[in-house]
Amino acid sequence: MQKIPLQLARAGMVLARAVFRDDNPAGNPVCGKGVLLTESLISRLEAMEVKTVYIKGHPLRQPGDPTLDEILHDLDLRFEKVLQDPLMSKLHTIYADYLKRTMGDDGV
Question: Model confidence over 21-39: pLDDT tens digits?
Answer without folding.
Answer: 877 778 889 999 999 999 9
